[in-house]
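Bench log, entry 3. Co-assembly request; chain sequences pasted below exactly as received.
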Amino acid sequence: MPQLRVALGQINPTVGALEANSALILGTVESAAAQGAHLVVLPEMAITGYPIEDLAFRPSFVDASRTAVTALAERLAAEGLGDIAVVTGYLDRAEPPVTRVGSPKGSPQNSVAVLYGGQVVTRQAKHHLWNYGVGDEIRNFVPGDTISIIQVRGVDVAIAICEDLWQEGPSAAADAAEAGLLIVPNGSPYERDKSDRRLELCSRRARDGVCALAYVNLVGGQDELVFDGGSLVVDAEGQLVARARQFEPELLVVDLDLPAATAPMPPPDREFAGLKVTRTILDPEPLPTYEVEAANIAEPSADLAEVYGALVVGLRDYVRKNGFESVLLGLSGGIDSTLVGVIACDALGAANVLGVSNPSEWSTGHSQTDAAALASRTGLRLDTVPIAPMVDAFREAVDVDGLAEENLQARIRAVVWMALSNQHGHLVLACGNKSELAVGYSTIYGDAVGGYAPIKDVPKTLVWELARWRNAEALRRGEQPPIPETTIAKPPSAELRPGQLDTDSLPPYDLLDDILDGYVEQDRSAPELVAQGFDAALVEKVAALVDRAEYKRRQYPPGPKISARNFGRDRRLPITNAWRERLVEPPPSAAHERMPPP
Amino acid sequence: MPQLRVALGQINPTVGALEANSALILGTVESAAAQGAHLVVLPEMAITGYPIEDLAFRPSFVDASRTAVTALAERLAAEGLGDIAVVTGYLDRAEPPVTRVGSPKGSPQNSVAVLYGGQVVTRQAKHHLWNYGVGDEIRNFVPGDTISIIQVRGVDVAIAICEDLWQEGPSAAADAAEAGLLIVPNGSPYERDKSDRRLELCSRRARDGVCALAYVNLVGGQDELVFDGGSLVVDAEGQLVARARQFEPELLVVDLDLPAATAPMPPPDREFAGLKVTRTILDPEPLPTYEVEAANIAEPSADLAEVYGALVVGLRDYVRKNGFESVLLGLSGGIDSTLVGVIACDALGAANVLGVSNPSEWSTGHSQTDAAALASRTGLRLDTVPIAPMVDAFREAVDVDGLAEENLQARIRAVVWMALSNQHGHLVLACGNKSELAVGYSTIYGDAVGGYAPIKDVPKTLVWELARWRNAEALRRGEQPPIPETTIAKPPSAELRPGQLDTDSLPPYDLLDDILDGYVEQDRSAPELVAQGFDAALVEKVAALVDRAEYKRRQYPPGPKISARNFGRDRRLPITNAWRERLVEPPPSAAHERMPPP
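Structure output for the full assembly:
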């Protein structure tokens, strides 16, 4: 059987940074060459970054991507790397263009190019466009209708792009039954429990096709998404033979014994399941036998470590890729801002994290001592700006009480943070968790301000779990746990009026999070939730709170997706929406229920 | 030739308000019956409102829609209206469900039902799903695969749902060559110049099919969208025979002479272009000849009247459908807030509009006198809350200068507005225009706060045009022009530092808007814009400002779409985006350009 050394470049490109991304790929191929690789595979849209969204409609951007991939092929050859087959994702366009009404402008295609001998020798565009969850690819791309088989050192290699692997039925993967290796460039964002499903899928497709499979994923953050890497290779029996780490760039190199190409000469082009198959021979001669090296098989992370890793990478890349160096967050001594502070320290280094404590007349003593303890444990800088004088000035000018007065305090804090941000260039972090965001338990333009919201997809109960996990992890490493125990133990409070507790307005968080999981993530109806055992009045209340808070979520900053359905592009609901889950028929006046003031 | 009196119910349902919408349809059919109509057609998704977005994934909502349409059929019969054929849009599901990976959960379908004799006698689901611009229907719906022909009083009537009419090639419209009438329920949102395109399309399809065509559209606002009505009927030669007004509900009744059904008995079901055709005979007997009445042929509005109408309806429906009664806006005496104030008075009545003037040390005298003049001309209430004491309190607490100090003032104003909103229940309006939003010339959490942004899709030059148009319209009606001439005439300024003018930071607005039209709406490249005659440095500057302001736009409130591409779901760009339009190749550091602080 011919041998092949395959290198999977699990890289972290930046959307739109074509030059920097090309340089990153060049460096990856150089490293792979130094390790003797014959075939290097980069992720989906590696040249442009991913997802590019409506940048796809910009002809100058498509042109620049095409130019970049051609230039990269030439550069590789100029560097003496022209005899390595390099497969990379990039943006191209369909030719001739598709002219159907509403078809994506300019016919952009999510494509991969094969670079060899200084040229783009063949290309293939994604067949099955990802158009659910946070994916809008039917909006942005025209599907491909070709399958490119390349022959590398006597082995036939087929390509499937991300979603092409997930779809059942006739696909490039099935066609690859005739290939010795199926390579799969991906831009597959993280969510909990997904890495197990990926391995299971890859194994199944390998067994179906009787064909080894090399799956290479992006790594790094892009707005709401975190690509977790975890690139992997399975053999034709579906057995795992190599796996890269999660959340870090890695060049995963693996030696494979693969079947010799059955067709030594190119057979005539033919059709398969409506797709045109082309075969390109790069090098028909199998390699002389060489010594096999052991590949890395990284252990997958445990669930909490994985979630925490996603939050750190999401924040770090949002900050760095947008040109910031430091972040600012309001530190209340509560568990949410404390966890965000620790994540920020882990992502950026404590020297780049500024905590601001804004005590008011209702702040308890422990809110300041806990914030100070966090600062001392982590090394982040803590500034204190009491808000009483500003509150007094507003009270002189505007008559407020009740909720309006509570919100006023939260907004004055936000004005302080934004002033410091504007003056010193820190990115402000919003510290709201998913449970709060779900029920609207936050002050718009108050605690909700910020450029990024690191825990917006983390339910409150998971916030506590992550805090305990992070402390335990510190102990495991022989370090001081960063989070004060009192912060974990105390009952949550917004401290906007004397003795206020979250449970004054909301059910206990373990109960709330269970209802939210059913209502928000599973789309369960009120009767179904009651049948699960939840109190009927509570179910109606929670569902109504969720529905009515949509306007607040629309103005909330982006944050990393870790769940199967985050608030953001994953859940698109109308703001104007009179539908309410009820156990009985709604009264006729349902159309004009009052939205609570922000 | 058989006669038929067709009534098009141009109604304004509310998303999610199934009971209220059903009641609205019932009332519409009662009115149509009182006018002797034999066939009543309601718009797309009239039972649920439109667009429902991810509400489609909620099984309880689909069930409720199915129940509602059945209940409506029964109710119509109980009211003695069972012998009128009623065609209405609603939400249903495909049976059996589609199980492909990523196919919409629960297989929801954008459907129409035919109600007759107390039953849903047949249904049809949309074939071509609208998935460009602001439409995400492939995400939300499974396409239909049937065509339902109904025979009404001896006339064969076919149905096409909105996008099914726009798509070229085999379609229900083409099939309708065998029908005497094609009815088209629509949810077609307003944009400039669209009503002309609709008439042209309807005429062309009628001529293609040699078949009269009745096009019924929704009216009213739903978040970003404004449905403008303008329902119309063309005869088989494509001649306009009836047209409803824009932006108002109307029951458009028209008498048509139509060809007799060629097949008096139901022919066997057959296939057409992959669609299964069914034929349902409701009433095979042509009507006795009756006296024809003249139908309304409303004149279409002129461009500026149409835009202004969309802004008024968009605001009015957002406020009312979300249960608010009154709005609050900061009045600076400038053209933007003044126009928004007048729109609000026209939408809600001056008694429901509160203007707040927040003079600072840099405010000019005319900013207050112009705001007062607006209040006196329109009757809106004006409150004045000077901000100097609050500014002083913040200056004591935080050291700021330059841009940070300018933004501080804008944010203090916003805190005042939000306090008044929370205390008194007014919805806050953001007064930014499209040009500002494009280049990020606004203060996030300052002038950008609000629940709705009435002119966010209106470029600055169009703001002036609308102001002049509104004043001229007042004169035409013999009323006092609402907008002070000095407000229209003075150079724009944010008044955040002494003598500040917008042109200190931006090119003149007529020039800016031309560049923005090319860059934002047409996706033109920098070299193309320079070839159009714009200064190269200015093009690069404006394009970079637009790209870097994406994070601000994400947190901006919704507002009515009037252009072919609004900021919102119509233009989805990454925040993290290193791509910059340039005339020369970007330097290697392009990936990490600094984002300006908010």
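Chain B touches chain A through 118 residues (CB under 8 Å). The two ends of chain B are 68 Å apart (CA to CA).
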